[in-house]
Specification:
By secondary structure, the chain is an alpha/beta fold. The protein folds into three domains: 151 residues, NAD(P)-binding Rossmann-like Domain (Rossmann fold, 3-Layer(aba) Sandwich); 163 residues, Dihydrodipicolinate Reductase, domain 2; 78 residues, ACT domain (Alpha-Beta Plaits). Helix 1 links the parallel strand 1 and strand 2. Helix 3 packs parallel to helix 4, helix 4 packs parallel to helix 10 and helix 7 packs across helix 8.
């Protein structure tokens, strides 16, 4: 077998892990690495002649067979990857945003040029997920995904729970520890998880999900009081990436906080760990769990993809057919207002006779059944804290209820996962 030559774009945390790990494979040669600053001090010893600050030296190099893209983002990354594909180079990437926003173009271009695009590291870090779905689980009709796909938000919610701390306190700590970016918006507002569930649902359901149709809601409004109350009710609050599809190709794909029953495995997925619960036929229910980020866990998935290409190198003119895109249909999106969910409502109401009855009456007028309603004490300002859990109801209806509770303060509305 001839030696496969690769070029790497990006030598950050993951790129460094990939470089260190690939040194042991004698049939793989790292020809060139593109970085922003060639002279930047690094914790890995890379020969200066292998470095370039121009990614086009990699994507246009006729001797490079595989381009490993680890820089992230869409612009200018898409230009580099599309150029590489036009030059008949296979792609390994960890770029969840690019896959979510440009996936259809990416896979059409790769097929046009008879190239394979592998992206195991883009969805759940070190957890083997995409290749198992494409191979071992290929005979299944998967119809449901419930997943924790962002380690930063899971760390924040876990610490708020364990330390009885506020969101702002834990976010600051997470930033100091390096678990959260200086600008944490991509993580805490759900963008990262939304990118990932877009691609994961597309693969699992064998029907393309459009990123713009994915509902997204972050964790920045979650209060420690909500976490305390959830615990008392038998739940943990998690940022869940959820996707379901029915027999008519209608897909409900979203990311938002949920009250997860303590009986569910996702409720016990803590700190930076990721977990993915898949349901379908004939497999039933399975959960895959492990490190969702980090230098070596993510590098593990990148290297696995590189080796998958290397093992078939020089053996066929059409590499890895099972890993190629065959998502020719587009799922019909279900709008969030048309979904049915159970809800947790935290309400501050005037302490007066008939308030709880009023809440029940308004819910009933919108065809919403209340599962439980609890008042805990009276505050000094003569207001009461009331917690309501509904039965399954229409999202649009719960929003109408909130509008009608005009004399109350709605502290939180969080959807509840069914056990």
């Amino acid at each position: 077998m001839s030696k496969i030559k690769i070029g790497i774009i990006g030598l950050g945390t993951v790129g460094t892990g990939v470089y260190k790990s690939l040194e042991q494979f004698k049939d793989i040669e790292i020809t060139k690495i593109a970085v922003r600053n060639i002279n930047k001090p690094r914790n890995v010893n890379v020969p200066i002649e292998k470095l370039t600050d121009n990614p086009y030296e990699i994507v246009n190099d006729p001797d490079i067979n595989v381009v490993v893209e680890l820089m992230g983002g869409v612009d200018p990354t898409w230009d580099y990857i599309s150029t590489a594909l036009e030059n008949k180079k296979h792609i390994v990437t960890a770029n969840k945003e690019l896959l979510a926003k440009k996936g259809e173009e990416l896979f059409k271009l790769s097929e046009k040029n008879n190239c394979v695009v592998l992206y195991e590291a883009a969805i759940a870090g070190g957890i083997p997920l995409i290749m198992p779905i494409k191979t071992i689980l290929a005979g299944n009709k998967l119809n449901s995904i419930q997943a924790i796909l962002n380690g930063t938000t899971n760390y924040i919610l876990t610490k708020m729970d364990v330390d009885n701390a506020s969101y702002d306190e834990v976010l600051k700590e997470a930033q100091e520890l390096g678990y959260a970016e200086t600008d944490p918006t991509g993580d805490v507002e759900g963008y990262d998880a939304a990118y990932k569930i877009t691609t994961l649902a597309t693969i699992a359901f064998n029907s393309r999900i459009k990123f713009e149709n994915v509902y997204r809601e972050g964790i920045s409004k979650i209060r420690k009081e909500d976490i305390q109350q959830a615990n008392e009710l038998g739940y943990k609050i998690k940022l869940i990436a959820s996707a379901t599809i029915d027999t008519e190709n209608n897909a409900d794909v979203r990311v938002h906080p949920m009250l997860v029953p303590k009986s569910h495995l996702l409720a016990h997925t803590n700190f930076v760990t990721n977990a993915v619960a898949l349901s379908g036929h004939p497999i039933g229910n399975i959960v895959l769990s492990g490190p969702g980020a980090g230098e070596f866990p993510t590098a593990s998935s990148v290297i696995g993809d590189i080796l998958a290409i290397a093992r078939e190198w020089d053996t066929t003119e059409y590499l890895l057919p099972m890993m190629r895109c065959n998502h020719h249909s587009i799922a019909n999106p279900i709008e969030i207002n048309d979904t049915y969910n159970k809800y947790y409502l935290s309400i501050t109401a005037p302490h007066a006779i008939g308030v709880i009855a009023k809440i029940g009456t308004i819910c009933a007028s919108k065809n919403i059944s209340v599962s439980s309603i609890l008042q805990k004490g009276v505050q000094d300002n003569n207001t009461a804290e009331i917690t309501v859990i509904t039965e399954k109801c229409l999202e649009k209806s719960i929003k109408e209820v909130v509008k009608e509770l005009d004399s109350c303060t709605i502290n939180s509305i969080i959807r509840v996962m069914e056990g």
